[in-house]
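USER: For my understanding, would you kindly supply a protein sequence with its structure tokens?

ASSISTANT:
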Amino acid sequence: MTDASCELNTPADQPLAKAKGDDCSLEISAEKLQGRQRRILASILIPCPIEQVWQILTDYDNLADFIPNLTVSRRLESTESMTLLEQIGSQCFLNIQFCARVVLKMAEQFPNRIGFTMIEGDFKAFEGAWRLEPEQALESRTRLTYEVTVCPPRTIPAILIERHLRNDLTQNLRAIRQYAIASAGVA
């Protein structure tokens, strides 16, 4: 299977669509909400146990090592109930380097949910969650879902942010899947 077989982009305001005939079952959708807000939902099937996928997602300081366009990911503070995480994404668009920074309050509910809310950053709003569910047919597979509601600053068109997030999420979920497979030695 090539990476391209995992890629799927559906039009905005369309229901969640599935890629047919591939092992990763990538799904992605976007929805226009009130005002300039967008909700993006992306999901992928990973052939690894839920605990392994959880460990990868919560290794916050090393996420930038394998997630495309994520240049910084570092834990600022941790307590038993939450983690403050700084992330900076960088991408070149029309020969201009675009960077976005967020400080997220992460709330972990092992092993099924990691919620996040922006407490500081370059967006007007940025919040969502990672959800992990064991695949019903096989316990050694995990359905990883990422949901985000974002409102860009007024200086950036909402449709542009939506397109970039959809593209980035496709790449990021594929990268997480490949990293999990490589870490587990799954063929």
Q: What stands out?
A: DSSP finds two helices and nine strands in the chain. The helical segments are 50-57, 158-184. The beta strands are 17-18, 27-32, 38-46, 70-78, 83-93, 96-109, 113-121, 125-134, 142-151.
